[in-house]
Structures are given as structure tokens and as C-alpha cells.
Design a protein that fits this description.
138 residues; alpha+beta; Cytidine Deaminase, domain 2; binds 2'-deoxyuridine; binds zinc ion; hydrolase; Cytidine deaminase; EC 3.5.4.5
Length: 138
């Protein structure tokens, strides 16, 4: 991505993998990690947090964005996401795509595999024709 050097992307990928280790997922046993790079260079991580009332589960991506907002960040450059699937790059669920696009269409999404390889995509690509704050005049 323009403006994000390779070393920073590698750091982001490493951080999302470390975050995956923290996942609380006793029901699915499907750990997910996310790491958000803010416009000012901070990295904020998240993991999925499940609940015995299954519908209350929060995905890694949304955990990360809630943390980032709560810590005062509003501008984001990139997010890296990882799960344990080795043979394909897996994107965020639809709910997470909508929550991420609330904070801009221009940030980069890195889908990663457990071996550290990654594929660059974008929120525009992941959520075409999105409903966004612009439609409410924001
Ligand atoms: O984008 C996604 C999709 C799923 N999960 C979590 C939710 C649940 O804990 C587990 C299985 O769906 O993976 C995420 O964290 N992010
Ligand atoms: Zn999700």
C-alpha cells in the first residue's frame, strides 16, 4: 500500500497473529486475530470473544475497532486479519466489513495465512455498493 512500508506491514501481520493467540473461542475453536494500523502509526489489536449465548460473540475485527475508537483513534491506514486456515486467504465477515467501512473506504485490508503470507485488498473491494455515513449526510 502507498505509504505503508513493507516492514510496517510485516509488523502488523505479526501483531494480528499474536492477537489470535488471545482469542476466547471455546465453542468454535476458531481463533481469529486482527491488528489495525492507525493513521498516526499506532497498532491496536483484537481477537474474537465468544459467549455461551452464541449470538453475543464479537469478531476479532470488531474487537479491534472498538478498542481503537475507545483509545481515541479515528483515522486508519490498514487492518490485518488472520485465522488458522492455511490454504486460502479469508476475509472478514459481512458484519465486520460494515463496521470497518464506517471509518472510511480507503484503508487497506491484509488477509493473512498462518505462514505469514498476506494478500492486499480493500474495503471497497470487500463491500461494494456499501451503505455508508455519506448516505446519512456524514
Ligand atoms: O470475520 C470473522 C469471522 C468470524 N470470526 C469469529 C467469530 C467466531 O468466534 C468464530 C467462528 O465464526 O470466528 C471473527 O472473529 N471474524
Ligand atoms: Zn466479523
Amino acid at each position: 500500500m502507498a505509504g505503508t512500508d513493507n516492514a510496517k506491514v510485516k509488523e502488523l501481520v505479526l501483531k494480528c497473529m499474536q492477537a489470535r493467540e488471545m482469542a476466547y473461542c471455546p465453542y468454535s475453536r476458531f481463533p481469529v486475530g486482527a491488528a489495525i494500523l492507525t493513521a498516526d502509526g499506532a497498532i491496536i489489536t483484537g481477537c474474537n470473544v465468544e459467549n455461551a449465548s452464541f449470538g453475543l460473540t464479537v469478531c476479532a475485527e470488531r474487537t479491534a475497532i472498538q478498542r481503537a475508537i475507545a483509545e481515541g483513534h479515528r483515522k486508519f491506514s490498514a487492518i490485518a486479519v488472520t485465522c488458522d486456515i492455511k490454504d486460502s486467504f479469508v476475509g472478514p465477515c459481512g458484519a465486520c466489513r460494515q463496521v470497518l467501512i464506517e471509518f472510511g473506504t480507503d484503508w487497506v485490508v491484509y488477509l493473512t495465512k498462518p505462514d505469514g503470507s498476506y494478500k492486499e485488498t480493500s474495503l471497497k473491494e470487500l463491500l461494494p455498493l456499501a451503505f455508508s455515513p455519506a448516505h446519512l449526510g456524514h
